[in-house]
Design goal:
Layout lengths: L4 E3 L17 H11 L8 E2 L6 H4 L5 H9 L4 H7 L5 H24 L1 E4 L20 H11 L6 E5 L6 H7 L26 E5 L5 E8 L12 E5 L5 H18 L5 E4 L17 H17 L4 E4 L8 H18 L3
Parallel strand pairs: 1-2, 1-3, 3-9, 4-6, 4-8, 6-7, 8-9
Antiparallel strand pairs: 5-7
Helix pairs in contact: 1-10, 5-6, 8-9, 9-10
The structure holds zinc ion (ZN).
The site of zinc ion has 7 residues, from loops.
């Protein structure tokens, strides 16, 4: 038995047909974890879909109405880049429910992983980049509404910037959540300003960190609390140094009640939609770093998966499975 819960449903599958997004990856990660003995059937919890009320904590009523009635305009549908269907809407409501469940269990067990979710390109009033509903934001707002948490920090390690996350949480402010600031100090890469640039902006009750390839979708990157704009081709060592730097800076400024880790598999060197150069081993070290930092500071972590478009889907499945193995190692009793 794992010392924490995995959240999964076969209905996480996104019915989008033959698409660069490998929607079957969730089931394959689930099956791999069981086949390799990393987890057993009893380690998994089956989520319920989020309620409309939960979704409305983040998304505009007009947008939710359009999703539920199939009345998106052709332009709005094109922007999501996956074919609209009622079944697809249900899969996104379920992903949001899964993130809520994982966030709740993170608070009791210190960590929980949803074998899905991480749809960080969804905005309050529209979807983008394969993301219809921002499941992580819905989970944060639901736990805040239930008085389970006051503050949260998103740590987004997908290769694409978390534009939806940044837009949703921009300017939401609880004064007491901010620690005395390091007053806009420019943070340096330990070995000098190599292969990237770190930008800092104002934080609210949710502190957002995004490490991403600068020269990639989304073109317009609304400011996160910390953005690390990485140059093309950044590899394991530089990436890990930047991540370490961003986490230290974020946690110097802000004390979150929950970390929401978005563990995208697409910084991988063989990703079709990414231009960074991380190895499978480097990606596992990335997961370990986030988990070690969270455990050392006793901050609960909920994990979601986001993107992963490796030439060989098996590599994406390995990277996502390794996230659970890294959690198992880092949170061993
Ligand atoms: Zn991505």
């Amino acid at each position: 038995m794992l010392p924490f819960k995995l959240v999964y449903s076969d209905a996480y599958y996104l019915p989008i047909g033959n698409h660069v997004f490998p929607a079957e990856k969730y089931r394959r990660v689930h099956d791999r974890l069981i086949a390799t003995g990393v987890a057993g059937p009893a380690d998994f919890l089956e989520p319920e879909p989020a309620s409309d009320q939960d979704i409305l904590l983040v998304h505009k009523p007009e947008y939710v109405q359009k999703l539920k009635t199939g009345t998106l305009s052709p332009r709005e549908e094109m922007e999501i880049e996956i074919p609209y269907s009622r079944d697809l809407v249900e899969a996104f409501w379920l992903a949001a429910g899964g993130s809520i469940l994982a966030a709740r269990h993170a608070l009791t067990d210190k960590i929980s992983v949803s074998i899905g979710g991480g749809f960080h390109h969804a905005f309050p009033d529209h979807g983008e980049g394969f993301c219809m509903i921002h499941d992580v934001a819905v989970a944060i707002r639901r736990l805040q509404r239930d008085d389970k948490i006051r503050t949260a920090m998103t740590v987004d390690c997908d290769v694409h910037q978390g534009n939806g996350t940044a837009a949703i949480f921009a300017g939401t402010r609880t004064a007491s959540s901010l620690l005395p600031s390091v007053s806009g100090a420019t943070l340096q890469h330990p070995q000098g300003n190599i292969g990237g640039k770190m930008r800092e902006a104002h934080a609210g009750d949710v502190f957002t960190i995004s490490l991403h390839q600068h020269n990639n979708y989304p073109m317009w990157k609304p400011p996160s609390s910390i953005d690390v704009d990485l140059a093309d081709g950044v590899g394991d060592n530089d990436y890990l140094a930047w991540l370490d730097n961003a986490l230290s800076s974020g946690l110097r400024q802000f004390e979150p009640d929950l970390i929401c880790y978005i563990a995208g598999a697409d910084p991988y060197q063989e990703d079709q939609l990414g231009g960074l150069n991380l190895t499978i081993d480097g990606l596992k070290k990335r997961d370990e770093l986030v988990f070690r930092v969270a455990r050392a500071r006793d901050i609960p972590v909920m994990v979601t998966y986001a993107g992963g478009y490796a030439q060989d889907v098996e590599d994406t499945v390995t990277i996502h499975s390794n996230t659970v193995i890294a959690a198992k190692e880092a949170f061993a009793p």
